[in-house]
Design brief:
Length: 196
């Protein structure tokens, strides 16, 4: 795809997500390239969050163990992305969908790539005007859910309510698995003792 094709697809993702999803799903991309794409997006997210995490850790909003290890952070993000792909494919199948790991992987790579770009733009905007940054982040968050629902619906060949159900099952599964992994790896936040 050319840069103009990517711009066109990005614009269509925002304005007509269902049609954009069909275009992404129609791309002839080998599974190996999908996994490489997930890896690339994980690295970009790792770089982005490595810049933000020191401040978040000081505010108590991030796990300190992640701050000093960008590689661990990137690996953790990659695990989340891979789990999202498998859980979204599995959850949709439970609800009668036709999507497989390959199709869900393609839409995940595309949407996560756009998310990275949007995060960087919002961060820059927030430096100029915190209010505008907050408004942009809020609008993007709300519209982003609609975009995601449309992409999942197209990947599984069913309607928006079933896509919502798919995401609900996926998020519950993701929370359970990540909680277990975090505890096993010692990445869970320390327990509160009640002292102030």
């Amino acid at each position: 795809m050319t840069f103009d094709d990517l711009k066109s697809l990005a614009l269509e993702t925002v304005t007509n997500p269902a049609q954009a999803a069909k275009r992404v799903l129609a791309l002839d991309v080998p599974m190996q390239a999908v996994w490489m794409g997930l890896g690339l997006v994980a690295v970009l997210n790792g770089i982005y969050y490595s810049v933000l995490l020191p401040g978040l850790a000081q505010a108590g909003l991030a796990v300190p163990a992640m701050v000093g290890s960008p590689v661990t952070l990137t690996g953790f993000i990659l695990v989340i992305f891979v789990l999202m792909v498998f859980l979204t494919a599995f959850s949709g199948r439970l609800l009668g969908g036709i999507g497989d790991v390959e199709s869900v992987g393609k839409i995940t790579v595309w949407l996560q790539m756009l998310r990275v770009v949007a995060q960087v733009v919002i961060s820059i905007l927030s430096l100029v005007s915190p209010l505008l940054g907050w408004l942009a982040a809020t609008a993007l968050g709300i519209w982003g859910i609609w975009i995601l629902l449309n992409f999942v619906a197209q990947a599984h060949g069913f309607n928006i309510p079933k896509a919502l159900g798919t995401l609900a099952v996926m998020f519950v599964g993701l929370i359970v698995v990540m909680s277990v992994l975090s505890a096993a790896l010692g990445l869970a936040p320390p327990a509160q003792t009640g002292d102030f």
